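Below is one record:
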Amino acid sequence: MLVKNLHTKVFGNSADNFIRNFTLKFAIFGFLLHLVLWLLHITKLFLFPESAIHLLGSPLYALYTPFSILLGYEVYEIIKAIPESFSTAVGKQYEVATLLVVRDVFKRLSEAQFSGSWDLTGDLGLVLLECSAFILLFYTALKYQNFGRILRPRSWDKLALNKFVNGKKAIALLLMFIFVVMTGLSFLGWLSMTLDGQINIGRSIFFSDFFTCLILADILILLASYSFAHDFYSLVRNTGFVLSTVLLWVAITTPGASGIILFITSAINGIIIVEISDYYNA
């Protein structure tokens, strides 16, 4: 009962509405604040430290701020979805990956220098690759949303099912605590590096460490689910979900074109798993 009540307070409708509304208002505020700082910089009404100028070089950088805030809410959505469905939580992970990639696209467009040639080895090739990954990841996230709605639940013993769901709620609460702590530490670390002139606004900040925790949680849920569902189909399907998460983690920690190719590989892997599962579940 303690886990159930605490889970309701943290992830219930009232908490979800509050967090969603706060995130939206905070994202709008962050976007407008970043634009104001950019205007102050280009008009030279205020002289910023040399370490901060890199963040104010283009108005497109202002898009980075609200997307980073919205990514925080999407991580909350991943954690909230864990007790509901394994596939739904994986779909939320693809939503986070989609926003990470489109955020990188905005950042690259603000820095890219395009030539008049058809050379695809430079910025143009990376932008095209990132846009392709964005579309594929977006499609994968939608596939998982639809799959979670039509998936037929397995016939488990009611008592065993309640124990399993309560276990996933406990994992979600632990991940939420880790999420809050890691967010604070990551922000302080980023702020310290920025003030020292070490500019780093890549996707590895926070998300690399958090996805590591998410993989461990997925493996724990996988092992727990196999104690209730012993069939090979459920084991391999859930293992495929974990594989998708691992591929996303590697993609997040890998820079350049290699990381984008891994995002695409994860999306293709996720789509194939859903298609096979959908066919078997029909």
